[in-house]
Amino acid sequence: MPVLEPSVLELRGITVERGGRAVVKDVTIPVPAGEVTALLGPNGAGKSSLVLAVGGVLRPRPGSVSMDGTELAGRRPEKIRAAGVAIVPEGRRLLPDLTVDDNIKVATYALSKQAAAEGRARALDLFPRLGERLNVSARLLSGGEQQMVVLAQALVSQPKYILIDELSLGLAPVIVNQLIPVIRSVAASGVGVLLIEQFATVALSLATGAHVMEGGVLRYSGTAAELRERPELLHSAYLLRGSQIEASTVLDGTVLDSTGESTPET
User: Per-domain residue ranges for the chain?
Assistant: First the structure.
């Protein structure tokens, strides 16, 4: 029998320019199916621009985004999503005047009736709290509930790969701890997860592979276990090019916002 190649979303040699300046420079990251891969780095490292390039919002020049050998770079965002790659951008971008249920339904517009029903059921199974809040307007939700909705929107299409930008930003640790089992369950179901984080504790607790970006460049590529065991590697990667973030800040288990201040859930 032929040996099957492992499924992988491969970002290879990606460079992204914004405002005439390269904010991502020759980045290569494999995202294996069924695993969580962590992408760490300080604020302004280029992580979000990389996510937008994978999702088709920005075009990498040059660079390749291939899913199980099929090239996706250059496709429109809806085509990339239909191919099986879902993006959760930073910032919990919801339609605030629509209910939770309607926000989830909006994300199923391109699916068949059966696929939409199955995806919605799967999302509500992962986030039972949303089942209790279906008729509540998105603007009235807590920060943690809003994060659940944007994750549900990405998962209703039952993607093969999902990129989550800043899962924990602005959320209290107790809320983040409720989301961790969901991410673990998604990966265990065979989905490849790229978890983009400014703060490392959550990502490294979930991830197999890990990468650190600073100044648009990969400063480390290896295993999450190595970063957990040797925090000086993370420290040195964060402090390159003058970053002021200390390894103790990103590894101490505190959930912080982009200013470095501890932030309760809203």
Answer: 1-84+159-266, 94-156
Q: How far apart are CA 38 and CA 167, in angstroms?
A: 11
In terms of Cβ atoms closer than 10 Å to its own Cβ (0-12, 13-18, 19+), residue 93 is exposed
Q: Is 206 helix (H, G, I), strand (E, B) or coil?
A: helix
d(CA 30, CA 221): 10
Location of structure tokens 């005047």: 97
Full pLDDT tens readout for the chain, 266 residues: 443 456 899 999 999 998 888 999 999 999 999 999 999 988 888 999 999 999 989 888 888 999 988 899 889 998 999 999 999 988 778 888 899 999 999 888 878 889 889 889 999 999 999 999 999 999 999 988 999 999 999 999 889 999 999 888 888 888 888 899 999 999 999 999 999 987 788 899 899 999 999 889 998 999 999 988 888 877 776 655 444 444 444 444 433 333 333 343 33
Q: How far apart are CA 53 and CA 59, in angstroms?
A: 5
pTM: 0.84
Helix (H, G, I), strand (E, B) or coil at 36: strand
Distance CA 123, CA 91 (A): 20
CATH H superfamily, domain 1-84+159-266: P-loop containing nucleotide triphosphate hydrolases (3.40.50.300)
CA atoms within 13 A on the CB side of 115: 12
Tell whether the torsion through CA atoms of 11, 17, 18 and 21 is positive or negative. positive
